[in-house]
Amino acid sequence: MAELTTLARPYAKAVFAEAQEKNALDAWSADLATLAAFAADADMAKVLVHPSLTAAQQAQALTDVCGDKLNDAAKNLVAVLAENKRLPLLPEIAALFEELKAQLQNTVDVVVTSAYELTSDQADKLAQALKAKLNCDVRLSSEVDESLVGGAIIRAGDLVIDGSVTGKLSKLAEAMKS
């Protein structure tokens, strides 16, 4: 994983710099999301690393699948990645680009996994509390995992807050073993 990030980072930074210069962060976000989705597809992934295909053929296959969804700059990125045999990095490049964009816009994506569906009032209160704690705008999404029994797990970037009943029971069991 770290190796993929290391390889993808220069491309993500270059695309981000280009997007900033052209004031096209949202357009690049959309293009990279499209490319990442297709590149992550199992069948397309085989095409992107197929040894009998030239770099141009691999790039053409990916851009053909994307159709009219890509602008010329994104198609150029695909060509450069194909030439350097880096097309499988597209999902990682897209993720790094989104991280850079979030840092610039001072936002964080927060995923709340709870045992039950959050009400809109609970989600609003949680978003406000996280906004105060993290000093940035919060984009909150929620998931339901009934195996948590109760409570919630909050993930915001590298920060993980485990307030689930399952997590607390695990900590208690660990403390009793030592």
From TrEMBL:
Keyword field: ATP synthesis, Cell membrane, CF(1), Hydrogen ion transport, Ion transport, Membrane, Transport
Compartments in which it is found: Cell membrane; Membrane
Protein topology in the membrane: Peripheral membrane protein
Pfam families per the UniProt record, alphabetical: OSCP
Its job: F(1)F(0) ATP synthase produces ATP from ADP in the presence of a proton or sodium gradient. F-type ATPases consist of two structural domains, F(1) containing the extramembraneous catalytic core and F(0) containing the membrane proton channel, linked together by a central stalk and a peripheral stalk. During catalysis, ATP synthesis in the catalytic domain of F(1) is coupled via a rotary mechanism of the central stalk subunits to proton translocation.
Family membership: Belongs to the ATPase delta chain family.
HAMAP family: ATP_synth_delta_bact (MF_01416)
Matches recorded under NCBIfam families: ATP_synt_delta, PRK05758.2-2
Protein name: ATP synthase subunit delta
Organism: Thalassolituus marinus
Name of the gene this protein is made from: atpH
